[in-house]
C-alpha cells in the first residue's frame, strides 16, 4: 500500500521557497538550495504543490489529479450579495427532475470544500428512489415525540406533521455526513451556491438531520458510517414559488476595534 506523502523532484526544484511560505505545518525548508521536508508529519493539504511554479512537488496517494489555473476567476461582489439577499428556503417544488450532471456539480462543490486540518471527512447520500421510505421513517420518529414538544411550543402545536413533512415532495435530497459537523455545514453552503446557480431552490432540513442522528433505524437505513454523523440535509428542486423581494433583516451589528 502506497504511503501518503509529499515528494519533491529536486531536479525541477529551483529553491524559490514559495512552498515553505504557504506550508501550514511549517514542514518545508530550503536545504542546499532545494526544498526539503523537515519531518514525516504533514496534514497533506497540497498547498505546496499548488503554489510551486516548477511543478516540482507531488502529493503521493492524496487524491485525484490537480487542475491547472489558466485565468483569474473573480465573482462579482454585488451578484454574490444579491444571491444571498434574495435566497429563500423553498418548501414548494415543481415535479421537474434534476439532471444527473447538475447533481454531480452540486456534489463536486461539496467534495472540493475546505475542511479543518484537511480532514476531507465529508461524504454524501443522495436520496432518490428510497427518499419516500426514509422520510416515512423520520415522520414516525417525529410523530412520537411531537405531543411532548407541543406542551412547550405553540409553534410546534401549529405545525402538522404530514407524510411530506421533511422533503416537501422535492425530487432529490442530499444528506451530508462528516466527522466534524462544521466541515459538513461548510460543504452545504458551497453546494447551495451551485444549486442556486443552476436555478434550484434549497431547503436546509434541520429536522431530518435531527431525526437521522437520533434514530438507529434511519442511521442503518441510510448507512451513516461509524464515526460520522449527519451534519446537514439539503432538500433540492426547482421552486414552484416566485419571491418578488427580499425579507426584512435587523440592522448590521458590528464593532470595529
TrEMBL record:
Name of this protein: Nitroreductase family protein
Organism superkingdom: Bacteria
Stored PROSITE patterns: 4FE4S_FER_1 (PS00198), 4FE4S_FER_2 (PS51379)
Keywords in alphabetical order: Iron, Iron-sulfur, Metal-binding, Oxidoreductase
Molecular-function annotations in GO: iron-sulfur cluster binding; metal ion binding; oxidoreductase activity
Record's keyword annotation contains rRNA-binding: no
Keyword Metal-binding: yes
Species for this entry: Lientehia hominis
Record-stated family: Belongs to the nitroreductase family.
Residue ranges occupied by any 4Fe-4S ferredoxin-type domain in the UniProt entry: 4-33, 34-62
Residue ranges crossing the lipid bilayer per the database entry: none
Pfam families: Fer4_10 (PF13237), Nitroreductase (PF00881)
